[in-house]
Design brief:
Blueprint: H1 13-27, H2 36-43, H3 47-59, E1 63-66, E2 72-75, H4 84-91, H5 119-135, H6 138-150
Antiparallel strand pairs: 1-2
Helix pairs in contact: 1-2, 1-3, 1-4, 1-6, 2-3
Amino acid sequence: MVPAASFSMRVSSKAHYGLRMMTEFTRGYGKGPMSIAEVARVEHLPVAYLEQLAAQLRRGGLIESTRGVHGGYALTRPPEQISVLDVVRIVEGEVSPVECVAHDYVSGSCIREGECASRGLWLRLKESIDTVLSQTTLGDLLADHALIDSMAPGTPA
């Protein structure tokens, strides 16, 4: 028997780690800058990789850096004003399940373009993903996490 082929649409490590770093900055929002070393320790992620992501996020305007002994990074605006899509687009680029639904797709690049029955599906999927990511903020992520923690077994009510 031949094993079934698997279909996988995965989030890149850049997007995943970038979002994990941004949630740590969200936890520390309003408490001053947080060092990359602290984020790496809490999230068990490599410092060098986080430094690269932090540079992208700083250039993208989502975080700012402060130098010095008590320096580090902090969000440039409240967590409720930064969407998951903002983070993903800066570290990864556009979210697109297939090439032909990306914003930069050049019409006519695919020989099957006029007869492709599945392109509409991929377009709807892309729109759905963009909608969910744009309507979910960093603040929402922490609120959802706090709600899940409060419902965990053994948690005092």
